[in-house]
Amino acid sequence: MNGRSAPLAGIRVLDLSRVLAGPWCTQNLADLGADVIKVERPGKGDDTRGWGPPYLKDQDGNDTSEAAYYLSTNRNKRSIAVDIATPEGAALIREMAAKCDVLVENFKVGGLKKYGLDYDAIKEINPALIYCSVTGFGQTGPMAPLPGYDFMIQGMGGLMSITGERDDLPGGGPQKAGVAVTDLFTGMYATVAVLGALYERNRSGLGQHIDMSLLDCHVTMLANQNLNYMTSGVAPKRAGNAHQNVVPYQVFAASDGHLIVAVGNDGQYAAYCNAIGRPDLATHPDYVNNSQRLKNRVALIAELEAIMKTRARDDWIGALQKVGVPCGPINNIAQVFENEQVKHREIWKTMPHPVAGTAPTTASPIRYSGTPIEYRMAPPLLGQHTEEILGELGLEESGRKAGILPAAR
């Protein structure tokens, strides 16, 4: 790193979250150099440790106890196993929180209060702590006490009303996204919120409570679709693989498969029309600009679909890329990792693992020139660093009281 420290070097994070939204946030913080201490239930740990198969294979090809889902969101962290439901365990966590900069949790609203681990209690012992709560519906409002999960939020938050094939076509109907996008967006927004709070603390010296809601983040991320409704009064509907506001911007069938054509402006549209041998479609008054193409979408797309079926997918991709028209194939995930650009960017990383020998991980997309992301540790085994962490914090005696360290000899 040329003598430079990681962006969050020296920041200690107490991670009381599990599954995806909270751990996604803390993995981002860990990638940025924070020391993230993952607190897990003894014997079971994070729920996602059991969300398999698939499981990580050892060097003999046998399943380990580490589920792929868990591996996806817990690298660069250390694990300590503590039962916070016991008075001694809760007391240990309070002592740890007093020595941390950030705490991230995703218990139900009020769920940590009975253990004395809620924000008001922790603030009394560490006023500089940034305490981030991730819940389904936030800390306030009529639904605040209810549990919230990504799938249900995708439905009630509107995403499934605009995702999937049109209702009037075969296969139409509500469809969730292929990954838990609500959890992931919430984890990303939580990361931003923590970084902002850390920066503000440099001025005030004080921490604060961050209230992150899956529903809030989900509705916010609908972006232009929200504004389509807010400016027109008409709720957007499912449009399959077409774009609500841009034409042509969709999947086309070629003679041997499918490709995406994503024309983003009138210049690209003219280049596209020339490439497919129909320059007249670029100057036709019904299609000359995007507003006209939106009004006359049905007729234009019918013409384009017939043309696109006349050549092979890769022929079209080569011809369109040559003239700067955004386009590409529809890959499965195996094909993604065979893509030359993906290989060049080294998105598939391999890390040493204490049980399996090595473990794969997906690289962070953050690319710093001066302080590149370091892949320091594979996702930890349950309680792997308990003794190490308590020794560093000078909390061995509290660890013995909590029953997670052996009695002193």
UniProtKB/TrEMBL annotation:
Keyword check for NADP: no
Chain intervals for the UniProt region annotation (Disordered): 43-62
InterPro entries attached to this UniProt entry: CoA-transferase_III_domain, CoA-Trfase_fam_III, CoA-Trfase_III_dom3_sf, CoA-Trfase_III_dom_1_sf
Coiled-coil region(s): none
Keyword field: Transferase
Keyword Transferase in annotation: yes
GO molecular function, one term: CoA-transferase activity
Protein name according to UniProt: CoA transferase
Provenance organism: Allopusillimonas soli
